[in-house]
Amino acid sequence: MNVAEAITRIENELSIIDLIGHYSELTPKGKNYTGKCPFCKSKKSFTVSKKKNIFKCFQCGTGGNPIRFIMEYENISFKEAIDFIVIKFCETLNIPENFTADPIRGDVYVLLLADGCYYIGFTRNLERRMKEHFSGNGSIWTRIHEPIKIIEIHSDKTLNYENYLAQKYIDEYGYMFVRGGDHIYFKRKYEDKINTKVPI
After folding, report:
1. Domains in the chain: how many in total?
2. Please, which residues bridge with residue 63 across strands?
3. Could you report the per-residue pLDDT of 54-71, keeping only the tens digit for each?
4. Residue 32 near residue 42 (C-beta atoms within 8 A)
5. Which domain holds residue 145?
6. Which of 37, 50, 71, 100 could form an S-S bond across to 57 if both were Cys, CB 3.0 to 4.6 Å?
7. Are residues 51 and 110 in the same domain?
8. What is the mean pLDDT of the chain?
9. CATH code: domain of residue 69
10. For residue 197, is it within any domain?
């Protein structure tokens, strides 16, 4: 698979609702979804269209498709954003795990959460991401389970390391207590082990 094919698959098959839902809590409103803008924090101007697969903030002007969202949020290039999405959604998009457009590096962190849970994440801006998690504006998992403290930070790592570390924690503590890496986005290989009432 080449980069052009990966782009086509992302644009046609990746739901922008699923993607942005891990950065901002979205609420259905008519044909679209609304939520707090992850960029300017406006609570009234951020709209996501499931049908068109695009987002737009009418306060700060940021908008586009799933690739543009990741480019803007992570402050990375077009090819780096493709790589980011492919690694996160490789099974959803049916893209080979070894596909690489342009690997990016950043910080992989582990948060200890309430109820004995853990969250493993990747970011290019650790300070901003921690503010989001600890203010209740982070991932779905850190909105459900209150963050207590950072227990690990691994610098200059790729997204693949996030997946590795998430799998390591899942093996030790179980899927019911850990989210991170591509395990946030799919549950196929764990379906016989999890309580489906617990959101992923």
Report:
1. 2
2. 56
3. 999 999 999 999 999 999
4. no
5. 105-190
6. 37
7. no
8. 83
9. 3.90.580.10
10. no
DSSP string, 4-65: HHHHHHHHHH--HHHHHTTTS--EEETTEEEE--TTT--SSSEEEETTTTEEEETTT--EES
Closest CA to 89 of 171, 186, 164: 186
Calculate the alpha carbon distances from 86 to 58, 100, 159, 188 in Å: 28, 8, 10, 17
Same domain, 83 and 111: no
Side chain identity, residue 48: V
With respect to residue 96, please indicate whether it lies within any of the assigned structural domains: no
Mean of the pLDDT values across residues 141-151?
Answer: 93
Do 80 and 114 fall within a single domain? no
Show the tokens assigned to 169: 């924690």
Are 83 and 177 within 8 A, CB to CB? no
- pLDDT tens figures, 69-106: 999 988 888 888 888 888 777 666 776 666 666 667 88
Q: How confident is the model at residue 184 (pLDDT cuts 50, 70, 90)?
A: low
pLDDT grade for 199, boundaries at 50, 70 and 90: very low
Q: Which structure tokens are listed for 61?
A: 């002007």
Is 69 among the domain residues?
yes
Q: Is residue 7 part of a domain?
A: yes
Does one domain contain both 44 and 9? yes
